[in-house]
Amino acid sequence: MKKDICNIRFITTVLLLTSLFAVFSYAEDASSLIPQISYAPQSSRDPFKDFLPVKRDAEEQVGAIRGQAEAAVQLPAMKLQGVIWEGRIPQAIIDNGVFTVGDKINEAEIKSIDREGLTLLYKGQVFLLPSPARVLEAESLKKQGGEK
User: How far from 129 is each of 27, 67, 121, CA to CA, in Å?
Assistant: First the structure.
């Protein structure tokens, strides 16, 4: 019984291979039976560079906002260490503490948290603390510009 099943499998395999050989041998060009797929990228984009354009240097943004101020109000010293902006509740890490929109730190109220950084309202004036990624990006652009 097992021998009969093995014989049937062998004969089926031989017939299948023979029919495939016949199909490919009678075709003028065997490649015409197989669809040709080619990949031609539109551009060679660096996958590690940001897709979104940089609006302006983070330092320029802070300078522009401060320049619009009527009186010279200084934002209290604070260090923005990180920004988590993509979740349901955007958060900022400032001086080893975690803050969300609406929280106050050193009398400055957090108005928004996004990929650009932190927008603060302090004594009636708006300030932007650039995210650490934007600061590093601005520094690397300055270095690249200086090397040319």
Answer: 69, 15, 11
